[in-house]
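REQUEST FORM: STRUCTURE PREDICTION
Request ID: SP-0412
Submitted by: Lab K.M.
Chain count: 1
Length (residues): 166
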Amino acid sequence: MSESFICSICGQAHGGLVTDWAFKLPDEVWAIPEAERSKKARFNNDLCQFDNRNFIRCVLDVPFTEGTGSFGWGAWAEVDWRTFEHYLKIYDEDGTSGPTRAGKLANSLQAYPGSLGTPVVIQFRDSSKRPSLYLAISDESLLAREQRTGVGESRYHEILNIIQNR
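STATUS: Completed
RESULT:
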């Protein structure tokens, strides 16, 4: 495995191993043929609307157990209109002290089969950071367990192999 990677956002090579994986759009919107996508959905890097559905781009962190840091999944959450509208209002503000909101994972995380549609809790942060996603304490899926307990080096490399070979 290479000790560098090409960033899918900026197209530049970066040293080290990938520590995040971002989805450009919710899976359902990404599946729309490119020529039709902008006619059927409204979106930018942080927000998306498709039909009567609303999505917010967030980050779901899975901590490393060996060393510092985490693997960040730049995933989209489907939210109700009230949550979407609230995020629009606080977009340029610090939302860390506000209440959490509910949503559903709108991307299938390749390393976690069945993750699409998983209920999530959204915590807004300051305006320089995307909202954080958390899985419920009662959720016993692999993703939820690893978000709570972290991943070791072996599992981290397994995740890298999965996303790089998709």
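NOTES: The first strand starts at residue 4 and ends at 6.
Reviewed by: T.R.
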